[in-house]
Write a structure and sequence with these properties.
The structure is a single chain. The chain is an alpha/beta fold. It has 19 helices and 17 strands. It has a five-stranded mixed sheet, with helices on one face. It has a four-stranded parallel sheet with strand order 11-10-13-14, sandwiched between helices. Helix 2 crosses helix 3 and helix 9 crosses helix 11.
Protein backbone atom coordinates (compact mmCIF):
# COMPACT_ATOMS: atom_id res chain seq x y z
CA UNK A 1 0.00 0.00 0.00
CA UNK A 2 1.32 3.44 -0.96
CA UNK A 3 2.06 6.00 1.73
CA UNK A 4 -0.94 8.22 2.47
CA UNK A 5 -0.76 11.91 1.70
CA UNK A 6 -2.33 14.83 3.53
CA UNK A 7 -4.95 17.05 1.93
CA UNK A 8 -7.30 19.66 3.33
CA UNK A 9 -10.95 19.86 2.36
CA UNK A 10 -12.92 22.89 3.55
CA UNK A 11 -10.29 23.59 6.20
CA UNK A 12 -10.08 20.08 7.68
CA UNK A 13 -7.11 17.73 7.39
CA UNK A 14 -7.50 14.26 5.83
CA UNK A 15 -5.17 11.38 4.99
CA UNK A 16 -5.89 9.92 1.56
CA UNK A 17 -4.35 7.59 -0.98
CA UNK A 18 -2.30 9.21 -3.76
CA UNK A 19 -2.95 8.67 -7.48
CA UNK A 20 -6.64 9.51 -7.35
CA UNK A 21 -8.69 12.52 -8.37
CA UNK A 22 -10.15 15.11 -6.05
CA UNK A 23 -13.63 13.73 -6.78
CA UNK A 24 -12.62 10.19 -5.88
CA UNK A 25 -10.99 11.30 -2.64
CA UNK A 26 -13.94 13.53 -1.75
CA UNK A 27 -16.45 10.72 -2.38
CA UNK A 28 -14.58 8.45 0.03
CA UNK A 29 -14.54 11.18 2.67
CA UNK A 30 -18.26 11.88 2.41
CA UNK A 31 -18.15 15.05 0.31
CA UNK A 32 -20.38 14.70 -2.75
CA UNK A 33 -19.29 17.07 -5.50
CA UNK A 34 -22.01 17.61 -8.16
CA UNK A 35 -21.29 16.05 -11.54
CA UNK A 36 -22.94 15.34 -14.89
CA UNK A 37 -20.48 14.05 -17.48
CA UNK A 38 -18.61 11.80 -15.05
CA UNK A 39 -19.18 8.03 -14.94
CA UNK A 40 -16.77 5.67 -13.14
CA UNK A 41 -16.75 3.15 -16.01
CA UNK A 42 -16.02 5.73 -18.71
CA UNK A 43 -13.00 7.84 -19.57
CA UNK A 44 -12.70 11.30 -18.03
CA UNK A 45 -14.37 13.90 -20.24
CA UNK A 46 -14.29 17.01 -18.05
CA UNK A 47 -16.93 18.54 -20.32
CA UNK A 48 -19.73 19.73 -18.07
CA UNK A 49 -17.58 21.62 -15.50
CA UNK A 50 -20.30 21.11 -12.90
CA UNK A 51 -17.77 19.37 -10.66
CA UNK A 52 -15.48 22.39 -10.33
CA UNK A 53 -13.74 23.02 -7.00
CA UNK A 54 -11.32 25.63 -5.75
CA UNK A 55 -7.70 24.59 -5.15
CA UNK A 56 -5.59 27.16 -3.36
CA UNK A 57 -2.79 28.31 -5.64
CA UNK A 58 -4.54 27.31 -8.88
CA UNK A 59 -5.28 30.12 -11.34
CA UNK A 60 -8.90 29.08 -11.80
CA UNK A 61 -11.42 26.52 -10.69
CA UNK A 62 -10.46 22.92 -11.58
CA UNK A 63 -12.60 19.97 -12.66
CA UNK A 64 -12.48 17.59 -9.69
CA UNK A 65 -13.19 14.55 -11.90
CA UNK A 66 -9.86 15.04 -13.67
CA UNK A 67 -7.60 16.88 -11.22
CA UNK A 68 -5.30 14.64 -9.09
CA UNK A 69 -4.73 15.13 -5.36
CA UNK A 70 -1.27 16.18 -4.18
CA UNK A 71 0.47 16.41 -0.82
CA UNK A 72 -0.70 19.43 1.14
CA UNK A 73 -3.41 20.38 -1.35
CA UNK A 74 -6.05 22.72 0.06
CA UNK A 75 -9.44 22.19 -1.54
CA UNK A 76 -12.71 24.07 -1.15
CA UNK A 77 -15.88 22.37 -2.38
CA UNK A 78 -18.72 24.56 -1.13
CA UNK A 79 -17.81 28.26 -1.05
CA UNK A 80 -20.40 30.87 -1.98
CA UNK A 81 -18.47 31.71 -5.16
CA UNK A 82 -18.29 28.05 -6.18
CA UNK A 83 -22.00 27.56 -5.59
CA UNK A 84 -22.74 30.59 -7.75
CA UNK A 85 -20.43 29.40 -10.54
CA UNK A 86 -21.95 25.90 -10.57
CA UNK A 87 -25.42 27.37 -10.54
CA UNK A 88 -24.58 29.57 -13.54
CA UNK A 89 -23.28 26.53 -15.45
CA UNK A 90 -26.41 24.51 -14.74
CA UNK A 91 -28.65 27.51 -15.47
CA UNK A 92 -27.11 27.78 -18.94
CA UNK A 93 -27.86 24.08 -19.53
CA UNK A 94 -31.42 24.47 -18.27
CA UNK A 95 -32.08 27.59 -20.35
CA UNK A 96 -31.04 25.76 -23.52
CA UNK A 97 -33.26 22.80 -22.59
CA UNK A 98 -36.85 22.14 -23.71
CA UNK A 99 -39.46 23.42 -21.26
CA UNK A 100 -41.40 20.18 -20.96
CA UNK A 101 -40.26 18.66 -17.67
CA UNK A 102 -43.78 17.72 -16.56
CA UNK A 103 -44.40 15.72 -19.73
CA UNK A 104 -40.89 14.31 -20.16
CA UNK A 105 -40.19 10.59 -19.80
CA UNK A 106 -37.45 11.36 -17.27
CA UNK A 107 -39.51 13.71 -15.09
CA UNK A 108 -38.61 12.87 -11.50
CA UNK A 109 -35.59 10.81 -12.56
CA UNK A 110 -33.50 13.31 -14.49
CA UNK A 111 -30.02 14.22 -13.33
CA UNK A 112 -30.25 17.73 -14.79
CA UNK A 113 -33.56 18.25 -13.01
CA UNK A 114 -32.12 17.04 -9.71
CA UNK A 115 -29.08 19.30 -10.07
CA UNK A 116 -31.23 22.32 -10.83
CA UNK A 117 -33.34 21.63 -7.75
CA UNK A 118 -30.33 21.08 -5.48
CA UNK A 119 -28.74 24.35 -6.64
CA UNK A 120 -31.84 26.38 -6.04
CA UNK A 121 -32.55 27.22 -9.67
CA UNK A 122 -36.11 28.50 -9.68
CA UNK A 123 -36.20 30.62 -12.84
CA UNK A 124 -34.76 30.79 -16.35
CA UNK A 125 -32.57 33.86 -16.60
CA UNK A 126 -31.00 33.60 -20.03
CA UNK A 127 -32.84 34.28 -23.28
CA UNK A 128 -31.70 33.68 -26.83
CA UNK A 129 -31.51 31.10 -29.57
CA UNK A 130 -32.06 27.47 -28.58
CA UNK A 131 -30.99 24.34 -30.39
CA UNK A 132 -33.72 22.75 -32.48
CA UNK A 133 -32.92 19.50 -34.25
CA UNK A 134 -36.07 17.40 -34.10
CA UNK A 135 -36.56 13.86 -32.81
CA UNK A 136 -35.26 10.76 -34.61
CA UNK A 137 -37.92 8.05 -34.27
CA UNK A 138 -36.76 5.99 -37.27
CA UNK A 139 -35.67 2.90 -35.31
CA UNK A 140 -37.78 0.21 -33.69
CA UNK A 141 -35.93 0.49 -30.39
CA UNK A 142 -34.04 3.72 -29.65
CA UNK A 143 -35.26 7.31 -30.02
CA UNK A 144 -32.71 10.14 -30.27
CA UNK A 145 -33.72 13.64 -29.17
CA UNK A 146 -30.78 16.07 -29.62
CA UNK A 147 -32.83 18.96 -28.19
CA UNK A 148 -32.52 17.36 -24.74
CA UNK A 149 -28.81 16.59 -25.06
CA UNK A 150 -26.48 18.46 -22.67
CA UNK A 151 -23.30 17.27 -24.47
CA UNK A 152 -21.96 15.37 -21.47
CA UNK A 153 -20.57 12.76 -23.87
CA UNK A 154 -21.58 9.75 -21.76
CA UNK A 155 -23.48 8.11 -24.64
CA UNK A 156 -20.55 8.61 -27.03
CA UNK A 157 -18.08 7.09 -24.56
CA UNK A 158 -20.40 4.21 -23.68
CA UNK A 159 -20.94 3.39 -27.35
CA UNK A 160 -17.24 3.57 -28.22
CA UNK A 161 -15.40 2.48 -25.06
CA UNK A 162 -17.69 -0.14 -23.50
CA UNK A 163 -19.74 -1.38 -26.45
CA UNK A 164 -17.14 -0.49 -29.13
CA UNK A 165 -19.84 0.07 -31.73
CA UNK A 166 -18.74 3.68 -32.36
CA UNK A 167 -22.15 4.71 -33.65
CA UNK A 168 -22.27 8.10 -31.92
CA UNK A 169 -19.99 11.10 -32.05
CA UNK A 170 -20.07 14.83 -31.36
CA UNK A 171 -20.22 16.71 -34.65
CA UNK A 172 -19.75 20.42 -35.51
CA UNK A 173 -18.48 23.04 -33.06
CA UNK A 174 -19.62 25.54 -30.47
CA UNK A 175 -23.36 26.18 -30.23
CA UNK A 176 -23.95 23.83 -33.19
CA UNK A 177 -22.32 20.80 -31.54
CA UNK A 178 -24.62 17.80 -31.63
CA UNK A 179 -24.38 14.07 -30.85
CA UNK A 180 -25.35 11.97 -33.85
CA UNK A 181 -24.51 8.84 -35.88
CA UNK A 182 -22.04 9.14 -38.76
CA UNK A 183 -23.26 11.40 -41.59
CA UNK A 184 -26.28 12.26 -39.40
CA UNK A 185 -27.87 8.98 -40.48
CA UNK A 186 -31.23 8.08 -38.95
CA UNK A 187 -30.75 5.60 -36.12
CA UNK A 188 -32.50 2.91 -38.16
CA UNK A 189 -29.91 3.24 -40.93
CA UNK A 190 -26.86 3.53 -38.70
CA UNK A 191 -24.72 0.82 -37.10
CA UNK A 192 -26.69 1.19 -33.84
CA UNK A 193 -27.22 -2.28 -32.35
CA UNK A 194 -30.27 -1.11 -30.34
CA UNK A 195 -28.61 -2.24 -27.09
CA UNK A 196 -29.95 0.85 -25.30
CA UNK A 197 -26.88 1.46 -23.18
CA UNK A 198 -26.92 5.09 -24.35
CA UNK A 199 -30.33 5.33 -22.65
CA UNK A 200 -28.96 3.88 -19.42
CA UNK A 201 -26.12 6.39 -19.09
CA UNK A 202 -27.88 9.48 -20.48
CA UNK A 203 -28.59 11.91 -17.61
CA UNK A 204 -31.60 13.45 -19.39
CA UNK A 205 -33.96 12.12 -22.06
CA UNK A 206 -31.76 12.60 -25.11
CA UNK A 207 -32.07 8.84 -25.68
CA UNK A 208 -35.19 6.80 -24.93
CA UNK A 209 -36.71 3.49 -25.91
CA UNK A 210 -39.49 3.63 -28.48
CA UNK A 211 -42.66 3.53 -26.43
CA UNK A 212 -45.54 1.18 -27.26
CA UNK A 213 -47.36 1.38 -23.93
CA UNK A 214 -50.37 3.37 -25.19
CA UNK A 215 -50.84 0.91 -28.04
CA UNK A 216 -50.69 -1.93 -25.50
CA UNK A 217 -53.23 -0.27 -23.19
CA UNK A 218 -55.59 0.04 -26.15
CA UNK A 219 -55.21 -3.61 -27.12
CA UNK A 220 -55.63 -4.81 -23.53
CA UNK A 221 -59.14 -3.35 -23.71
CA UNK A 222 -60.02 -5.16 -26.93
CA UNK A 223 -62.48 -7.96 -26.01
CA UNK A 224 -61.77 -9.78 -29.29
CA UNK A 225 -58.13 -10.46 -28.42
CA UNK A 226 -56.63 -13.15 -26.20
CA UNK A 227 -53.87 -11.34 -24.35
CA UNK A 228 -50.77 -13.38 -23.52
CA UNK A 229 -47.76 -12.02 -21.63
CA UNK A 230 -44.27 -13.37 -21.04
CA UNK A 231 -41.47 -11.79 -19.02
CA UNK A 232 -37.72 -12.28 -19.06
CA UNK A 233 -35.73 -13.74 -16.12
CA UNK A 234 -33.95 -10.51 -15.24
CA UNK A 235 -37.14 -8.43 -15.22
CA UNK A 236 -38.23 -10.06 -11.94
CA UNK A 237 -34.87 -9.23 -10.36
CA UNK A 238 -34.94 -5.53 -11.33
CA UNK A 239 -38.53 -4.27 -11.53
CA UNK A 240 -38.69 -3.73 -7.77
CA UNK A 241 -36.17 -0.90 -8.16
CA UNK A 242 -38.81 1.09 -10.06
CA UNK A 243 -40.91 0.89 -6.89
CA UNK A 244 -38.15 1.89 -4.48
CA UNK A 245 -36.86 -1.58 -3.56
CA UNK A 246 -33.22 -2.62 -3.38
CA UNK A 247 -31.61 -4.18 -6.49
CA UNK A 248 -31.99 -7.94 -6.50
CA UNK A 249 -35.47 -8.01 -4.95
CA UNK A 250 -37.16 -10.94 -6.69
CA UNK A 251 -40.71 -9.80 -7.52
CA UNK A 252 -41.71 -12.69 -9.77
CA UNK A 253 -45.01 -13.53 -8.07
CA UNK A 254 -46.05 -9.87 -7.76
CA UNK A 255 -45.26 -9.30 -11.46
CA UNK A 256 -47.47 -12.23 -12.47
CA UNK A 257 -50.30 -10.81 -10.37
CA UNK A 258 -49.80 -7.31 -11.76
CA UNK A 259 -49.87 -8.51 -15.37
CA UNK A 260 -53.19 -10.23 -14.74
CA UNK A 261 -54.57 -7.06 -13.17
CA UNK A 262 -53.45 -5.13 -16.25
CA UNK A 263 -55.74 -7.35 -18.31
CA UNK A 264 -53.67 -10.27 -19.57
CA UNK A 265 -55.60 -13.53 -19.90
CA UNK A 266 -52.51 -15.72 -19.63
CA UNK A 267 -49.13 -15.01 -18.07
CA UNK A 268 -46.28 -17.25 -19.18
CA UNK A 269 -42.57 -17.15 -18.39
CA UNK A 270 -39.70 -16.60 -20.82
CA UNK A 271 -37.76 -18.93 -18.52
CA UNK A 272 -39.87 -21.76 -19.96
CA UNK A 273 -38.58 -20.98 -23.44
CA UNK A 274 -35.08 -20.53 -22.02
CA UNK A 275 -35.35 -24.23 -21.17
CA UNK A 276 -36.64 -24.81 -24.69
CA UNK A 277 -33.69 -22.89 -26.11
CA UNK A 278 -31.30 -25.12 -24.18
CA UNK A 279 -32.92 -28.26 -25.57
CA UNK A 280 -32.45 -27.01 -29.13
CA UNK A 281 -29.08 -25.33 -28.62
CA UNK A 282 -27.49 -28.21 -26.71
CA UNK A 283 -28.71 -30.60 -29.41
CA UNK A 284 -27.31 -28.37 -32.15
CA UNK A 285 -23.97 -28.08 -30.35
CA UNK A 286 -23.59 -31.83 -29.90
CA UNK A 287 -24.43 -32.40 -33.57
CA UNK A 288 -21.67 -29.99 -34.54
CA UNK A 289 -19.19 -31.69 -32.20
CA UNK A 290 -20.06 -35.21 -33.33
CA UNK A 291 -20.35 -34.41 -37.05
CA UNK A 292 -17.44 -31.96 -37.30
CA UNK A 293 -19.70 -28.98 -37.87
CA UNK A 294 -18.71 -25.33 -37.68
CA UNK A 295 -17.05 -24.54 -34.35
CA UNK A 296 -16.93 -22.70 -32.08
CA UNK A 297 -20.69 -22.45 -31.91
CA UNK A 298 -21.83 -19.02 -30.69
CA UNK A 299 -25.10 -18.44 -28.83
CA UNK A 300 -27.75 -16.27 -30.50
CA UNK A 301 -29.99 -15.14 -27.60
CA UNK A 302 -28.85 -11.51 -27.53
CA UNK A 303 -30.54 -9.47 -30.26
CA UNK A 304 -28.11 -6.54 -29.89
CA UNK A 305 -25.23 -8.96 -30.31
CA UNK A 306 -26.81 -10.52 -33.40
CA UNK A 307 -27.06 -7.14 -35.16
CA UNK A 308 -23.49 -6.38 -34.13
CA UNK A 309 -22.30 -9.67 -35.58
CA UNK A 310 -24.20 -9.20 -38.85
CA UNK A 311 -22.54 -5.81 -39.29
CA UNK A 312 -19.01 -6.32 -37.97
CA UNK A 313 -18.36 -10.09 -37.93
CA UNK A 314 -20.24 -11.45 -40.99
CA UNK A 315 -17.46 -13.98 -41.55
CA UNK A 316 -18.57 -15.72 -38.32
CA UNK A 317 -22.29 -15.96 -39.10
CA UNK A 318 -21.98 -19.70 -39.81
CA UNK A 319 -20.64 -20.14 -36.28
CA UNK A 320 -23.82 -18.76 -34.76
CA UNK A 321 -26.47 -21.09 -33.42
CA UNK A 322 -29.59 -21.10 -35.58
CA UNK A 323 -31.77 -21.08 -32.46
CA UNK A 324 -34.09 -18.15 -31.98
CA UNK A 325 -33.98 -16.29 -28.70
CA UNK A 326 -36.17 -17.47 -25.80
CA UNK A 327 -38.54 -14.54 -26.40
CA UNK A 328 -39.06 -15.47 -30.05
CA UNK A 329 -39.38 -19.18 -29.24
CA UNK A 330 -41.99 -18.43 -26.59
CA UNK A 331 -44.01 -16.32 -29.03
CA UNK A 332 -43.69 -18.98 -31.73
CA UNK A 333 -45.12 -21.78 -29.57
CA UNK A 334 -47.76 -19.40 -28.19
CA UNK A 335 -49.13 -18.74 -31.67
CA UNK A 336 -48.97 -22.39 -32.75
CA UNK A 337 -49.03 -24.99 -29.98
CA UNK A 338 -50.95 -22.86 -27.47
CA UNK A 339 -53.37 -21.56 -30.12
CA UNK A 340 -54.15 -25.19 -31.04
CA UNK A 341 -54.66 -26.00 -27.34
CA UNK A 342 -57.21 -23.18 -27.13
CA UNK A 343 -58.72 -23.99 -30.51
CA UNK A 344 -58.47 -20.37 -31.67
CA UNK A 345 -57.14 -18.49 -34.68
CA UNK A 346 -53.57 -17.43 -33.74
CA UNK A 347 -54.32 -14.00 -35.21
CA UNK A 348 -56.62 -13.44 -32.26
CA UNK A 349 -53.70 -13.88 -29.83
CA UNK A 350 -51.85 -10.76 -28.72
CA UNK A 351 -48.34 -11.87 -27.77
CA UNK A 352 -46.60 -9.37 -25.48
CA UNK A 353 -43.10 -9.60 -24.02
CA UNK A 354 -41.83 -7.65 -21.00
CA UNK A 355 -38.09 -7.54 -21.55
CA UNK A 356 -35.00 -6.07 -19.93
CA UNK A 357 -33.73 -5.22 -23.38
CA UNK A 358 -34.51 -2.42 -25.85
CA UNK A 359 -33.06 -4.51 -28.69
CA UNK A 360 -35.92 -6.97 -28.27
CA UNK A 361 -38.17 -4.37 -29.90
CA UNK A 362 -35.87 -4.53 -32.94
CA UNK A 363 -35.83 -8.32 -32.78
CA UNK A 364 -39.63 -8.57 -32.69
CA UNK A 365 -39.83 -6.56 -35.92
CA UNK A 366 -37.41 -8.82 -37.85
CA UNK A 367 -39.40 -10.52 -40.63
CA UNK A 368 -37.24 -13.67 -40.51
CA UNK A 369 -38.73 -14.39 -37.07
CA UNK A 370 -42.32 -14.38 -38.28
CA UNK A 371 -44.40 -17.52 -37.74
CA UNK A 372 -46.78 -18.76 -40.42
CA UNK A 373 -46.73 -15.34 -42.07
CA UNK A 374 -47.51 -13.34 -38.93
CA UNK A 375 -45.45 -11.45 -36.42
CA UNK A 376 -44.64 -13.74 -33.48
CA UNK A 377 -44.10 -11.09 -30.78
CA UNK A 378 -46.63 -8.32 -31.30
CA UNK A 379 -45.42 -5.84 -28.69
CA UNK A 380 -42.28 -5.57 -26.56
CA UNK A 381 -42.18 -3.35 -23.47
CA UNK A 382 -39.13 -2.81 -21.29
CA UNK A 383 -38.90 -3.27 -17.53
CA UNK A 384 -39.17 0.51 -17.20
CA UNK A 385 -42.30 0.59 -19.36
CA UNK A 386 -44.14 -2.26 -17.66
CA UNK A 387 -43.37 -0.67 -14.29
CA UNK A 388 -44.87 2.61 -15.53
CA UNK A 389 -47.95 0.79 -16.84
CA UNK A 390 -48.47 -0.86 -13.45
CA UNK A 391 -48.25 2.53 -11.74
CA UNK A 392 -50.45 4.17 -14.36
CA UNK A 393 -53.14 1.52 -13.85
CA UNK A 394 -53.20 2.23 -10.11
CA UNK A 395 -51.99 -1.25 -9.14
CA UNK A 396 -50.45 -1.49 -5.64
CA UNK A 397 -47.51 -3.56 -6.83
CA UNK A 398 -45.62 -3.85 -3.55
CA UNK A 399 -48.63 -5.21 -1.67
CA UNK A 400 -49.83 -7.71 -4.26
CA UNK A 401 -50.17 -11.32 -3.21
CA UNK A 402 -47.73 -13.37 -5.34
CA UNK A 403 -49.29 -15.54 -8.04
CA UNK A 404 -47.95 -18.36 -10.22
CA UNK A 405 -47.56 -18.44 -13.99
CA UNK A 406 -50.03 -20.27 -16.22
CA UNK A 407 -49.47 -23.62 -17.91
CA UNK A 408 -48.44 -25.14 -20.26
CA UNK A 409 -45.80 -22.48 -21.02
CA UNK A 410 -45.04 -21.19 -17.54
CA UNK A 411 -43.00 -23.81 -15.68
CA UNK A 412 -39.23 -23.43 -15.76
CA UNK A 413 -36.11 -25.05 -14.35
CA UNK A 414 -33.30 -23.34 -12.50
CA UNK A 415 -31.32 -23.46 -15.72
CA UNK A 416 -33.91 -21.22 -17.37
CA UNK A 417 -33.64 -18.71 -14.51
CA UNK A 418 -29.92 -18.03 -14.86
CA UNK A 419 -30.28 -17.05 -18.53
CA UNK A 420 -30.67 -13.52 -17.15
CA UNK A 421 -27.03 -13.08 -16.15
CA UNK A 422 -23.73 -13.38 -17.97
CA UNK A 423 -22.54 -17.00 -18.13
CA UNK A 424 -26.00 -18.35 -17.37
CA UNK A 425 -26.78 -19.58 -20.88
CA UNK A 426 -23.51 -21.46 -21.05
CA UNK A 427 -23.98 -22.96 -17.58
CA UNK A 428 -27.51 -24.05 -18.45
CA UNK A 429 -26.33 -25.57 -21.74
CA UNK A 430 -23.57 -27.52 -19.99
CA UNK A 431 -26.08 -29.04 -17.56
CA UNK A 432 -28.07 -30.52 -20.44
CA UNK A 433 -25.37 -31.12 -23.07
CA UNK A 434 -23.31 -33.15 -20.61
CA UNK A 435 -26.18 -35.52 -19.91
CA UNK A 436 -27.22 -35.80 -23.56
CA UNK A 437 -23.63 -36.58 -24.57
CA UNK A 438 -22.55 -38.91 -21.77
CA UNK A 439 -25.86 -40.37 -20.60
CA UNK A 440 -24.80 -39.46 -17.07
CA UNK A 441 -26.06 -36.75 -14.74
CA UNK A 442 -23.72 -33.84 -14.07
CA UNK A 443 -23.52 -33.65 -10.28
CA UNK A 444 -21.71 -30.33 -9.85
CA UNK A 445 -24.01 -28.15 -11.95
CA UNK A 446 -22.84 -24.74 -10.73
CA UNK A 447 -19.96 -23.65 -12.96
CA UNK A 448 -18.18 -20.97 -10.92
CA UNK A 449 -15.63 -20.23 -13.66
CA UNK A 450 -18.44 -18.80 -15.80
CA UNK A 451 -19.89 -16.53 -13.11
CA UNK A 452 -19.03 -12.97 -12.14
CA UNK A 453 -18.45 -9.72 -14.03
CA UNK A 454 -15.06 -10.39 -15.58
CA UNK A 455 -15.32 -9.25 -19.20
CA UNK A 456 -14.23 -12.54 -20.81
CA UNK A 457 -14.38 -15.83 -18.90
CA UNK A 458 -13.09 -19.24 -19.94
CA UNK A 459 -13.82 -22.75 -18.75
CA UNK A 460 -13.37 -26.43 -19.58
CA UNK A 461 -15.73 -29.39 -19.29
CA UNK A 462 -14.79 -33.06 -19.69
CA UNK A 463 -17.46 -35.06 -21.51
CA UNK A 464 -16.57 -38.74 -21.84
CA UNK A 465 -12.91 -37.81 -21.80
CA UNK A 466 -13.27 -35.12 -24.45
CA UNK A 467 -12.28 -31.64 -23.33
CA UNK A 468 -14.86 -29.02 -24.30
CA UNK A 469 -13.44 -25.50 -24.11
CA UNK A 470 -15.97 -22.71 -23.56
CA UNK A 471 -15.88 -18.92 -23.23
CA UNK A 472 -18.29 -16.20 -22.11
CA UNK A 473 -18.33 -12.47 -22.87
CA UNK A 474 -20.72 -9.73 -21.78
CA UNK A 475 -20.92 -6.26 -23.30
CA UNK A 476 -20.26 -5.77 -27.00
CA UNK A 477 -16.73 -4.50 -26.40
CA UNK A 478 -15.78 -7.71 -24.63
CA UNK A 479 -17.56 -9.68 -27.36
CA UNK A 480 -15.35 -8.00 -29.96
CA UNK A 481 -12.21 -8.90 -28.00
CA UNK A 482 -13.33 -12.53 -27.79
CA UNK A 483 -14.29 -12.75 -31.45
CA UNK A 484 -10.99 -11.20 -32.53
CA UNK A 485 -9.34 -14.06 -30.62
CA UNK A 486 -11.52 -16.56 -32.50
CA UNK A 487 -10.49 -15.06 -35.82
CA UNK A 488 -6.83 -15.54 -34.91
CA UNK A 489 -7.26 -18.97 -33.32
CA UNK A 490 -10.46 -20.68 -34.59
CA UNK A 491 -9.75 -23.92 -32.72
CA UNK A 492 -9.34 -22.39 -29.28
CA UNK A 493 -12.99 -22.81 -28.19
CA UNK A 494 -15.87 -25.16 -28.88
CA UNK A 495 -18.76 -23.11 -27.50
CA UNK A 496 -19.13 -19.37 -26.83
CA UNK A 497 -21.82 -17.37 -25.05
CA UNK A 498 -22.15 -13.66 -25.81
CA UNK A 499 -24.54 -11.17 -24.22
CA UNK A 500 -24.70 -7.64 -25.62
CA UNK A 501 -25.11 -5.76 -22.34
CA UNK A 502 -22.75 -5.33 -19.36
CA UNK A 503 -23.56 -8.06 -16.86
CA UNK A 504 -25.83 -9.78 -19.36
CA UNK A 505 -29.59 -9.22 -19.28
CA UNK A 506 -29.46 -7.91 -15.70
CA UNK A 507 -27.75 -4.84 -17.21
CA UNK A 508 -30.11 -4.56 -20.17
CA UNK A 509 -30.88 -1.26 -21.85
CA UNK A 510 -34.49 -1.39 -20.65
CA UNK A 511 -33.86 -1.89 -16.94
CA UNK A 512 -34.93 0.73 -14.34
CA UNK A 513 -33.02 3.99 -14.28
CA UNK A 514 -30.44 4.42 -11.53
CA UNK A 515 -31.84 5.87 -8.33
CA UNK A 516 -31.06 9.26 -6.82
CA UNK A 517 -27.87 8.15 -5.06
CA UNK A 518 -26.79 5.37 -7.41
CA UNK A 519 -24.82 5.12 -10.63
CA UNK A 520 -26.12 3.81 -13.98
CA UNK A 521 -24.92 0.22 -14.50
CA UNK A 522 -23.41 0.11 -11.01
CA UNK A 523 -21.61 -3.23 -10.59
CA UNK A 524 -23.05 -3.68 -7.11
CA UNK A 525 -26.58 -3.49 -8.50
CA UNK A 526 -25.72 -5.89 -11.33
CA UNK A 527 -24.30 -8.41 -8.86
CA UNK A 528 -27.40 -8.20 -6.66
CA UNK A 529 -29.72 -8.75 -9.62
CA UNK A 530 -27.61 -11.72 -10.73
CA UNK A 531 -27.58 -13.15 -7.20
CA UNK A 532 -31.38 -13.04 -7.11
CA UNK A 533 -31.41 -15.32 -10.15
CA UNK A 534 -28.79 -17.67 -8.72
CA UNK A 535 -30.80 -17.87 -5.49
CA UNK A 536 -33.95 -18.75 -7.43
CA UNK A 537 -32.03 -21.41 -9.34
CA UNK A 538 -30.94 -23.01 -6.07
CA UNK A 539 -34.50 -22.91 -4.72
CA UNK A 540 -35.87 -24.87 -7.69
CA UNK A 541 -36.57 -28.59 -7.40
CA UNK A 542 -35.83 -28.94 -11.12
CA UNK A 543 -32.53 -27.35 -12.16
CA UNK A 544 -31.91 -28.87 -15.61
CA UNK A 545 -33.84 -27.83 -18.70
CA UNK A 546 -34.41 -31.37 -19.95
CA UNK A 547 -36.11 -32.31 -16.66
CA UNK A 548 -38.85 -29.67 -17.07
CA UNK A 549 -42.08 -31.73 -17.44
CA UNK A 550 -43.79 -28.99 -19.48
CA UNK A 551 -40.88 -29.04 -21.92
CA UNK A 552 -41.12 -32.82 -22.18
CA UNK A 553 -44.86 -32.51 -22.80
CA UNK A 554 -44.33 -29.90 -25.53
CA UNK A 555 -42.01 -32.23 -27.43
CA UNK A 556 -44.27 -35.22 -26.94
CA UNK A 557 -47.42 -33.46 -28.10
CA UNK A 558 -46.09 -31.06 -30.71
CA UNK A 559 -42.37 -30.70 -31.49
CA UNK A 560 -41.58 -34.46 -31.56
CA UNK A 561 -37.91 -34.16 -30.50
CA UNK A 562 -35.14 -31.55 -30.22
CA UNK A 563 -33.87 -30.66 -33.67
CA UNK A 564 -36.88 -32.15 -35.47
CA UNK A 565 -38.26 -30.68 -38.69
CA UNK A 566 -41.12 -29.06 -36.75
CA UNK A 567 -38.68 -27.62 -34.22
CA UNK A 568 -36.51 -26.19 -36.98
CA UNK A 569 -39.50 -24.61 -38.70
CA UNK A 570 -40.65 -22.82 -35.54
CA UNK A 571 -37.61 -22.37 -33.31
CA UNK A 572 -34.69 -21.79 -35.67
CA UNK A 573 -33.70 -19.05 -38.09
CA UNK A 574 -30.72 -17.78 -40.05
CA UNK A 575 -28.81 -14.52 -40.06
CA UNK A 576 -27.18 -12.65 -42.90
CA UNK A 577 -24.65 -9.92 -43.50
CA UNK A 578 -26.03 -6.39 -42.96
CA UNK A 579 -24.66 -2.99 -43.87
CA UNK A 580 -26.05 0.43 -43.06
CA UNK A 581 -27.49 2.41 -45.94
CA UNK A 582 -24.71 3.94 -48.05
CA UNK A 583 -21.96 1.73 -46.60
CA UNK A 584 -20.27 -0.59 -49.09
CA UNK A 585 -18.69 -3.82 -47.75
CA UNK A 586 -14.98 -4.22 -48.42
CA UNK A 587 -15.56 -7.58 -50.09
CA UNK A 588 -17.51 -5.91 -52.92
CA UNK A 589 -14.62 -3.54 -53.61
CA UNK A 590 -12.03 -6.28 -54.10
Amino acid sequence: MEKLITIYINGREYKVEPNQTIMQAADKLGFHIPRLCYHPKLSIEGACRVCIVEVEGAKSYVASCAYPVNEGMKIHTNTQELRRARRDIVELLVDNHPMDCHTCERDGNCELQRLAASMGIRARHFEGERKQYGVDVSGDSVIRNPDKCILCGRCVRMCSEIQQVHNLTQAHRGFNTVVMPAYNMPMAESVCTACGQCINVCPTAAFLEKNYTQDLFEKLNDPNLIKVAQFAPSVRAAIGEAFGLEPGSNMEGQLVAALRKLGFDYVFDTQFSADLTIMEEATEFLERVQNKGKLPMITSCSSAWMKCLEQFYPDLIDNVSTCKSPMSMQSAVTKTYFAQKLGVDPKKILSVAAMCCTAKKYEAARPELNVEGMRATDIVVTTREIAWMIKSAGIDFLNLKPEEQDHPLGMSSGAGVIFGTTGGVMEAAIRTAYELYTGQTLVDIEVEDLRGLKGVKEGKVLMDGQEIRVAVAHGLGNACKLLDTVRKDPGRYHFIEIMGCPGGCVGGGGQPYAGVNSIPLDEGALRKRAQALYDEDRSKTIRRSHDNPDIQKLYKEFLQRPGSHVAHELLHTHYKQKFPKGIVPKSSLQ
